[in-house]
Amino acid sequence: MTEETKTPDTAATVTDDKGRVLTVKEPDFLQEARVTRLCGDASVNVGYMYAYVFPTIWVTVIDGNPVPFPTTFLQLEALIARVGRGGCAAVLKHMQARQDAGEHEAGVKN
Prior knowledge:
Elements: E1 4-6, E2 12-15, E3 21-24, H1 29-39, H2 46-57, E4 59-62, E5 65-66, H3 73-109
Helix pairs in contact: 2-3
């Protein structure tokens, strides 16, 4: 079960399979680079990065509680555990919908 609503600052909310409301926002390029560096050797594992790390760092709020951006690998792992499988699935669905919408918009312009 995933619901999605847009908010003014390009953030969106998704609801995961536990009914938690997650506010998600695409991290900026520098944040992505920093997290990739935090992951060290694991950053070459594309499955790990795209299935766990990147969806997790999109989460900024869980059920109204702000989520600080991870600055250490242990914080990143804790956030992955907190967001969980259902949360990552909801975020991934949102990310895919955004990509599909962007591809559609690009096709309309051409």
